[in-house]
Amino acid sequence: MIASLSLSLEENGTPRYQQLRQQLLMAMDQGRLQEGDQLPSSRALAQMLGVSRSVVVQAYEELIAEGVLTTQPKRGVFVAQHTLLQAPRSRAVKTAADASYERFDSGVDVSVFPNKKWAASMRRAWLNPDPKLLKGEYEAGYPPLQRAICDYLYALRGLECVPEQVLLVAGNHDALTLLQHTLADDVEQWLLENPTYPPLRESFAAQTCQVLPVSEQGCAPPTTRLAWAAVLTPNRQYPLGICANPTTRDAWLNALADGHNFVIEDDYDNEFLYQGGLSKPWFQAAQHRPGTCERVFYIGSFSKVLFRGLRLGFIVAPLSQVSALRHSQKELGLFASQTLQPVVADFMVNGAFYRHLNRMRRHYRAKRDYLLQLLAAHLHPWFVWHKPNGGLHIVTYVKEEFSSEQWCRELNGGCLQSGLRLSWLQQHYAEQETAPKGLVLGFSAPTEEQLQAWIKRIAEVCQSLSEKL
C-alpha cells in the first residue's frame, strides 16, 4: 500500500520529517490512506525512503501526538479509527497538508530565553575546550555536566546520586530506547500508564505491554507473575497532573523488593511547581529500602527548562546498571551530542540556569493564571476544569450534556476550519472510544494574545453548536 502513495523526500530546505508528515496527511485528506490502515514500521519506511529512522520516528510521533495516527502494542502504527480529528473535506477548510495550524503548546516560551547569558556560556565553554571533548571521548557525558546535574537534582528534588550514575542522552526517546535494550533479557512485560503521552506508546509498539489505569491515587502495581518494567510519571502524571499518594508509592516499591521488576521514573514537569511542595522522587525513596535501590531508574530532560532544540536529557541509573547501559549505548550508537554539553555545564555552574528557571516559573505561573481567567470568562458553559498546582498545561473536561461524539467532532471540525488544531484528552488513552472527553491546553509557549484568541475561537464554535440544539 505504502508504495502506491508515491512518498518522496527532497533536499528543498524543508526538514524531511515535515515533508513526510505533510505527505501522509495529504494522503489521508485525499482518501489514499483510510482509517484503520496500517503504516510500515519506522525502520521499514526509512529503508524505503532512503533516510535515517529518526526522520520517520519524528514524523510518526507528531502525528500520534495529534491523534491522526495511533499505535497498537506488538502490531504497529495505524491511521486512527475515529474521525474526531477530521474536518469536513470542503475547499473552504484548511487541510493540514497545505496550512500550518495553530495549537496550544506546552513547550518553551523562547521569547524570554536569556540569549546573552547563553552566549556568554558558549564563549567560556569553547575558549579553551577539553581535548577529550574534541575527540568525542566522553560518551557517557561531559564530567562537569554530570556533576552539575547531580547538584541540580539534589537542590531541586532532594535526589542524591554520584556523577558516575548520570548518563547523558539525546532526550527522553533515546533514554527509553536505551532502557528497553538494556533490560530486554530481564523484562517480559512493559507497563504504561493510561492515559499517557501518545509518542511514548509508539516507542513501545514492538514490546509486550499492559496499560495501567490512573486513578486519583495514581496507578496500582500489577498482579502479574511476569517480570515487568513500568514507565511512570508518579509525581506529576501526564496528562492528568495527579501525584501518586504514599500508599501507592509504597505498593510499587514493595513490588520491587523481590528483585525481578523495574520502575522507570519520569519526573515530568516538576521544575514548574507553583503551589505546595513536591513529593520525594521514588528513586530517592528506594535508596532506603533493601532490595529496591537497584530497581529504579530516573529520567529527565532539559527540553522544558532550556529549549527543545537542545535535545539533551539524562538517565540516573543504579550503579549496578551503569555498565549495561553504556554497553547498550555503544551497541545502538545512541550518544548525546557533546558539542553543547560544556555550554550547559557552564550555564548551570555559574548560576544563570537557576536564575532562568526561577524566572520561567514565575512567567509560566502568570500564564496559567491568565488561561484560567479566560476559561472562566468564555468556556464555563461547556467545560469544567481544576486549577493545577504546577505544570505547563490545563486539562478541561467536556460537560456531560455536551460529551457526545458528534458534538466533539463538530467542535473539532469548527476549530480546524478556523485554523486551530485541538489536542484532545481522548488521544492520550489506549481505548479512545471509552475515554473521558476533554482538551489538553498547553499554555507555556503561546503568547497571551494567542491564548485569548484561541479560547474565544473555541467559545464561538461551542456557542454555534449550542444554538443548534
From TrEMBL:
Sequence similarity: In the C-terminal section; belongs to the class-I pyridoxal-phosphate-dependent aminotransferase family.
SMART domains (alphabetical): HTH_GNTR
The domain of life for this entry's organism is: Bacteria
State whether keyword Transcription regulation applies.
yes
Q: Where is the HTH gntR-type domain?
A: 14-82
Task: Show the SUPFAM superfamilies listed in the entry.
Answer: PLP-dependent transferases, Winged helix' DNA-binding domain
Q: Which Gene3D superfamilies match?
A: Type I PLP-dependent aspartate aminotransferase-like (Major domain), Winged helix-like DNA-binding domain superfamily/Winged helix DNA-binding domain
Q: Which InterPro entries match?
A: Aminotransferase_I/II_large (IPR004839), HTH_trans_reg/aminotransferase (IPR051446), PyrdxlP-dep_Trfase (IPR015424), PyrdxlP-dep_Trfase_major (IPR015421), Tscrpt_reg_HTH_GntR (IPR000524), WH-like_DNA-bd_sf (IPR036388), WH_DNA-bd_sf (IPR036390)
Q: Which UniProt keywords apply?
A: DNA-binding, Pyridoxal phosphate, Transcription, Transcription regulation
Q: What is this protein called?
A: HTH-type transcriptional regulatory protein GabR
**Any GO molecular function:** pyridoxal phosphate binding
What is the species of this protein? Answer: Marinomonas aquimarina
